[in-house]
């Protein structure tokens, strides 16, 4: 044992506090954390350096605080995300890509490192690889394009892992209390983090059963933490909804009866999404660059490792419990599928699904240790799978980034040309309001990057929303953020009225003659058809 490790162990015995021991453990692994963060900063560089957005993020703008949005002042709380306001206030509402990206990558790096603590990883190689598999996951890059909430979502991810860590890593019986607090705030920022906590709970229970440890007391503490944290979150939410004199967004307001009625479909969705994430190229994951090969090899190795572990276990009850928990794992990581069967948003599930690969690596490590015939080759083969997987992750992230960058450059140049024509318009010069509507890729500017075919569906959707109000607001933000120009924009109500007029529907798309017209005193630019 190294000198620093002996020193930390002595401090841990002298000060049994979980927080102190965790701090000392973090200091031991500081270089892994810093290396992970540095690699993440490089891998994600193109996205934050070029302020690349998705349609939901573009129209928000560079200054945003949740529940103070003039379009809908209580929107985030109505979505159940009342904790977002706390994070936005801490960063002063500054919604800039570099700041948001650094905070996000910091939290995900910390979460990846903490995950190795929860899993009690002893291999130095795996302690270095697992955090990289978290921060380099394509899902993280998709979250990054939500600049207004990416930092909060990553903090929610970290807190959900911390909730389980408090229960599993603390020696006392009361670790579930700080764990419940962590889960409460994790859910307040992103309810999908419930899947992260639930999936991780199932994983640690599997490990306990495989190692012949008493798993029932741990299960009791985990359930106590989960129920208390979830009930506490919901109680605060109900109080805030009452104070704001509003209600939950309709798809989330069905209650327990709606959850029970939709459970069969929700469970089916959960298992379908679990399989799709590792086998398909769709809205939940992209596996174009060798990911499926790596997943397939890793699954085979994991099955071998589990078979070895179950044979070594030699206890029918423990074997049955382990198999049952493994069968429940897809439902646990996709628990938001089960709860919201009618609002199936696959992006919500990927946050918990990125834990599955680290879990497989843990199973490989456990299978090669404490056995009569160690199988080190399993860990070596698993590490090779991770190399293939990391390469695929990194290439996928940069594939998507280049597609977004090409689309953004095209639209910024288009916006500049439109502005030059507006400045020559007589009505504009006289002070008329302006309305620009349409998505460039649906009009005369359909050319996309040759990498678009392998990009995620979120990237393929383009830069602008299909909704007229948010589409117009996207143009407002783009002109100000990219060109430094704030035109005399018309109101949201006026935008919707103009979009519905027969005059607008009959207008040709830009740059055709007649694509810029004055309708009811507003200079309207039609970039493409929009409903």
Oligomer: single chain
Helix content: 55-70%
Mean pLDDT reading: 87
Shape: elongated
Walkthrough of the structure:
The protein has 531 residues and is mainly alpha-helical. Helix content is 67%, strand content 3%. The chain contains 26 helices and three strands. It has helices at residues 3-14, 18-28, 30-43, 45-49, 55-58, 75-78, 84-90, 97-118, 124-135, 138-144, 150-169, 176-189, 193-210, 215-244, 255-279, 291-313, 316-333, 335-339, 347-353, 356-367, 376-422, 426-429, 457-460, 468-483, 492-499, 502-506; strands at residues 433-437, 516-519, 522-526. It has a three-stranded mixed β-sheet. A hairpin with a 2-residue loop joins strand 2 (516-519) and strand 3. The protein is elongated. It starts with a helix and ends in a 5-residue tail after the last strand.
Write the layout of secondary structure elements.
Layout: H1 3-14, H2 18-28, H3 30-43, H4 45-49, H5 55-58, H6 75-78, H7 84-90, H8 97-118, H9 124-135, H10 138-144, H11 150-169, H12 176-189, H13 193-210, H14 215-244, H15 255-279, H16 291-313, H17 316-333, H18 335-339, H19 347-353, H20 356-367, H21 376-422, H22 426-429, E1 433-437, H23 457-460, H24 468-483, H25 492-499, H26 502-506, E2 516-519, E3 522-526
Parallel strand pairs: 1-3
Antiparallel strand pairs: 2-3
């Amino acid at each position: 044992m190294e000198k620093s490790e002996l020193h930390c162990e002595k401090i841990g015995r002298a000060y049994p506090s979980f927080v102190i021991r965790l701090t000392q453990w973090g200091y031991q692994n500081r270089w892994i954390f810093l290396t992970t963060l540095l690699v993440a900063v490089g891998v994600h560089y193109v996205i934050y350096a070029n302020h690349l957005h998705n349609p939901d993020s573009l129209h928000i703008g560079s200054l945003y605080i949740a529940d103070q949005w003039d379009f809908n002042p209580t929107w985030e709380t109505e979505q159940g995300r009342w904790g977002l306001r706390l994070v936005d206030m801490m960063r002063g509402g500054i919604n800039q890509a570099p700041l948001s990206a650094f905070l996000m990558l910091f939290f995900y790096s910390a979460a990846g490192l903490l995950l190795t603590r929860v899993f009690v990883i002893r291999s130095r190689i795996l302690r270095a690889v697992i955090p990289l598999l978290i921060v380099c996951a394509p899902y993280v890059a998709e979250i990054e394009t939500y600049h207004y909430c990416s930092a909060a979502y990553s903090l929610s991810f970290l807190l959900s892992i911390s909730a389980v860590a408090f229960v599993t890593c603390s020696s006392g019986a009361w670790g579930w209390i700080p764990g419940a607090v962590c889960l409460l705030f994790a859910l307040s920022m992103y309810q999908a983090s419930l899947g992260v906590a639930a999936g991780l709970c199932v994983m640690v229970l599997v490990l306990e059963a495989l190692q012949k440890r008493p798993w029932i007391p741990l299960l009791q503490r985990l359930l106590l933490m989960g129920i208390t944290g979830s009930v506490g979150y919901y109680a605060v939410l109900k109080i805030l909804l009452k104070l704001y004199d509003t209600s939950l967004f309709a798809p989330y307001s069905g209650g327990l009866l709606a959850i029970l009625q939709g459970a069969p479909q929700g469970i089916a969705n959960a298992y379908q999404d679990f399989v799709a994430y590792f086998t398909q190229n769709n809205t939940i994951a992209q596996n174009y660059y060798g990911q499926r090969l790596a997943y397939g090899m890793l699954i085979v190795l994991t099955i071998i490792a589990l078979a070895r572990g179950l044979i070594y276990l030699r206890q029918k009850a423990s074997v049955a419990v382990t198999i049952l928990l493994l069968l429940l794992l897809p439902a646990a990581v996709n628990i938001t599928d089960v709860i919201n069967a009618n609002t199936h948003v696959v992006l919500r599930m990927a946050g918990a699904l990125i834990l599955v690969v680290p879990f497989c690596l843990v199973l490989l490590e456990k299978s090669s240790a404490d056995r009569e015939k160690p199988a080190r080759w399993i860990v070596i083969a698993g590490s090779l799978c991770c190399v293939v997987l990391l390469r695929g992750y990194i290439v996928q992230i940069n594939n998507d980034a280049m597609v977004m960058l090409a689309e953004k450059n095209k639209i910024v140049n288009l916006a500049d040309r439109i502005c030059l024509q507006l400045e020559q318009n007589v009505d504009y010069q006289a002070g008329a309001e302006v309305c620009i509507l349409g998505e460039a890729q649906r009009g005369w500017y359909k050319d996309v990057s040759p990498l678009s075919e392998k990009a995620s569906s979120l990237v393929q959707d383009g830069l602008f929303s299909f909704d007229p109000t948010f589409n117009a607001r996207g143009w407002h933000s783009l002109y100000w953020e990219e060109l430094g120009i704030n035109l005399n924009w018309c109101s949201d109500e006026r935008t919707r009225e103009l979009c519905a007029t027969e005059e607008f529907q009959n207008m040709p798309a830009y740059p055709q003659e007649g694509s810029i017209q004055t309708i009811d005193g507003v200079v309207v630019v039609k970039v493409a058809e929009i409903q």
